Amino acid sequence: MAFTAAISRPSPPPPSLHSPRFHYQNFVPLSSNYPKIIVRPCLRILSSLPEPNSKPKHLVAAAAPVTISLDTFVSRFAPDEPRKGSDVLVEALEREGVKHVFAYPGGASMEIHQALTRSNIIQNVLPRHEQGGVFAAEGYARASGRPGVCIATSGPGATNIVSGLADALLDSIPIVAITGQVPRRMIGTDAFQETPIVEVTRSITKHNYLVLDVEDIPYIVREAFFLANSGRPGPVLIDIPKDIQQQLVVPNWDKPLQLPGYSFRLPKSPETGHLQQILRLISDSKKPVLYVGGGCMNSSEELRRFVDLTGIPVATTLMGLGAFPSTDELSLQMLGMHGTMYANYAVDKSDLLLAFGVRFDDRVTGKIEAFASRAKIVHIDIDPAEIGKNKQPHLSICGDMKEALAGMNRLLEETGVMYDFSSWREELNEQKAKYPLSYKTIGGAIPPQYAIQVLDELTNGNAIISSGVGQHQMWAAQFYKYRGPRQWLSSSGLGAMGFGLPAAMGAAVARPDAVVVDIDGDGSFIMNVQELATVRVENLPVKIMLLNNQHLGMVVQWEDRFYKANRAHTYLGNPSKEAEIFPDMLKFAEACDIPAARVTKKSEVREAIKKMLETPGPYLLDVIVPHQEHVLPMIPSGGAFKDAINEGDGRAAY
Length: 654
Description:
Blueprint: E1 3-7, E2 23-24, E3 46-47, E4 65-66, E5 83-84, H1 85-95, E6 100-103, H2 110-117, E7 123-124, H3 130-144, E8 148-152, H4 156-159, H5 162-171, E9 175-181, H6 197-200, E10 207-211, H7 217-229, E11 235-241, H8 242-246, E12 248-249, H9 260-265, H10 272-284, E13 288-292, H11 300-310, E14 314-316, E15 331-334, H12 341-349, E16 352-356, H13 362-365, E17 376-381, E18 395-398, H14 401-415, H15 422-434, H16 448-458, E19 464-467, H17 471-479, E20 488-489, H18 500-510, E21 516-521, H19 522-525, H20 531-537, E22 542-548, H21 553-562, H22 585-591, E23 596-599, H23 605-614, E24 619-624
Parallel strand pairs: 1-2, 6-7, 6-8, 8-9, 9-11, 10-11, 13-14, 13-16, 14-15, 16-17, 17-18, 19-20, 19-21, 21-22, 22-24, 23-24
Antiparallel strand pairs: 1-10, 3-4, 5-12
């Protein structure tokens, strides 16, 4: 076997477990708490999508996991029939249950696209830019729970997916990215459209490969999907030279996975004694709070049951929205820089912080020394690298949140223990009443928060919402009430503008029966506006609610607060015609044959959104909002809860 690979996360095994097939980076000590795990024969961790005519019980329910059996897979080729490496690749994807890819062709990936045309299983959704393709693959994965797949050519095609890979790594999203590469004999010669994409992406992928032997393709693809979906999910890249794609081979589909080093580091099931320690800490506490992140997205049912049994209030991160219903009386909604006052109050005053599936991100903690300074901290996460990285816990468990929550629920049900945190909940209810999320209406102007509230009402909180990055993203997090997991698709860790539209595109492909709405800003939207063409051609029913303030709103807010409102290239309109809306987003929609409308008055918003939702297929609604609005509350970067800002906007001087 001849290929090279690099793993950047999780940490490498002890030297005795090294395999000559891998090159590892970033050695760290390993704890003896993680014993060797035997890799089981069935290693596909996949999810099924609803059939086109089926009606899901709940629009936001996560897709049910299934396993593809090799015994039932029927190949287009006879067992001993030679076929091109590109055909082997496509069949390997089919065997992993892939039904859709987001692939943009080029010289080094033409063979793959030719092979895709010979597949009766996989449909290619053609993006109009490779970044649109990788963001769409992310949206597919975030909405469905199964790996998204994108394909790009070599050189600029490959480098165009870099932002998506970095985004997927930071947000722990399983995607498999496949890139074409120049022929092997030309690698390292600065050939036309040659980029060493394995080296470029080494630190922003969970794992990556340069395929140097056509016989390795079946194994590599199988391994890539296993790595992308197991442990802490993440992006995996496979780089395939063009001559490998063209080479004939009879593939071996039966080679078992051999990952002793990686499997060694997969956390074991939580020990009952450790779970009992957590329950004792809960018994001893008077003001416990759950701090829930994206690591709980696959354990929403267990989390809800845990809250039912304990009565502990729940604050969620931006990544964790939907893991616990925002409408529940025990929900404190989002915490952090733009979290609710009562969520941040709860963490500040708590005596026990249960940090489940989180990484103590700076946008959550602010000044790390002041974050939950009165509390004992319990941290459960599947990635050992996150334990104690930013905040040292009093008790930690490295393991799967689903298993940990199920174990604690079982102990609580067996013992029948009852907790009484009523006085704590009353204290937090007072904070909710005192500091609700609110906004002001100035004349007939449209408050952006109001538009999102109306959307929430008209969709009953059941839509899948994607967003770009900026003020509109925070308002969508605050004012849309997410009922379940995988409803909220947002570039959280990387904060990549241009994410909203292609992510919505991927979600619409993955969940054809769901209502999908991209709540976007004019700055983010225009970064991948070309994907309107894909939405139209594929007839994807993506609704775009554009909160258009003609500015880079979040940067303007910081200018208002910290730079005396000095505008430094944050106006996106035409300075010579400030009275006009520029660019005219309706003309972008018209160019792509997508129905569109503009609304400028608050009184018109409800009917406009209703029409958007009722119109079949895609639709763009341009909502003109004032640029003076600020996202509140706001804890300044590096600040603590005591520094929280809860009033004011761009109409005042600071």
